[in-house]
Amino acid sequence: MGSVTMQIKNTQRKSEQGNVLFLILIAVALFAALSYAVTQSTRSGGGSADRETSILSSASMTQYPAGLRTSVIRMILGGTAVDAMLFNSPSNISGSETVELFHPSGGGALYQNAANDIMATNTAGTWYINANFFVPEIGLTPGGSVSSDDAADVLAFLPGVSSTVCRRLNEEIGMDLSSPGCTFQISTAPQVTLGTPAKISENISSSGDFASQAAAADELEGDGGSCKVLAGLPSGCFFEPSLGTSGQFVFYSSILER
Q1: Which of 24, 52, 65, 185 could covalently link to 156 via disulfide, CB atoms 3.0 to 4.6 Å apart?
Q2: Do the strands 218-219 and 128-134 form a parallel or antiparallel pair, or are they unpaired?
Q3: 112: helix, coil or strand?
Q4: What 3-state DSSP class applies to 30?
Q5: What is the DSSP letter of 169?
């Protein structure tokens, strides 16, 4: 009787060992299949991840000037004239604080640099706000009895953004990236060759800057007389071939149309 019992137990143990081995083999097979699936997903889905990153980056880029616009409107409602506003960084404020956008006594706006992942160099970017340009069809356009002084828009500029973010932004706003008569940089943004590219990187920082900038405001539009791809767009991204060593992509956003 004892011998039979031992045989039964040995048989059960062998059966259990066989079952465990079978389960281990199944687990190994499933793990291998899962690893393969993840690898394939990573290879084929990289573009999707890049796309999601560019969406988030372009969103953060557009939100900041929208906040500045709100502060500017609040200053106007509080009685501050547009041509009296100054846009110095907090460390450069030295005059009347009530007309400064980035001072609590003025606009109370948050001053910040652009995030690294937005920029082509992966380093923090600098925003500039000036009245050196006007965008056709978002406000008044110089002509007839209207002077550029009246029509110059207050625009925020961020030079040096990455081409990926630039393209994503232009797609989001519905820019025609095949518009006839325009020169496009790698099918990403219209090329805009400015007479004085350095005017992008100026601020309205002292009394009289607004008037002098607005009086000599240039049209912000694509190269060529027939290129009107930026017309009517309060924000967008373009390529300036003379900025930096080989040109830069520049994001602009209207703070105040005039």
Answers
A1: 65
A2: parallel
A3: coil
A4: helix
A5: H
Across the chain, the runs of DSSP E, i.e. the strands, are 128-134, 153-161, 184-185, 189-190, 218-219, 235-240, 248-256
Which of 101, 37, 35 minimizes the C-alpha distance to 68?
101
Which segments in the chain show pLDDT lower than 70? 1-58, 140-151, 222-225
In the 8-state DSSP scheme, what is residue 109? Answer: P
Task: Compute the Cα dihedral for 31, 34, 40, 45 and give only its sign.
Answer: negative
The DSSP H or E segment spanning 60 is helix 2-77
CB atoms inside a 10 Å sphere around CB 249: 27
**pLDDT, position 187:** 84
Q: Where are the domains of the chain?
A: 112-256
Q: Which pLDDT score is estimated for 22?
A: 59
Q: Quick one: pLDDT at residue 42?
A: 40
Q: What three-state secondary structure class fits 185?
A: strand
Tokens read off for 114: 């652009």
Place of tokens 């706003």: 173
End-to-end CA distance of the chain: 105
φ, ψ dihedrals at 161, nearest 5°: -70, 160
The answer to whether the CB of 235 falls within 8 A of the CB of 149 is no
Please tell me whether residue 248 adopts helix, strand or coil conformation.
strand
149 to each of 83, 191, 209, how far by Cα in Å?
Answer: 10, 25, 12
Distance CA 257, CA 153 (A): 5
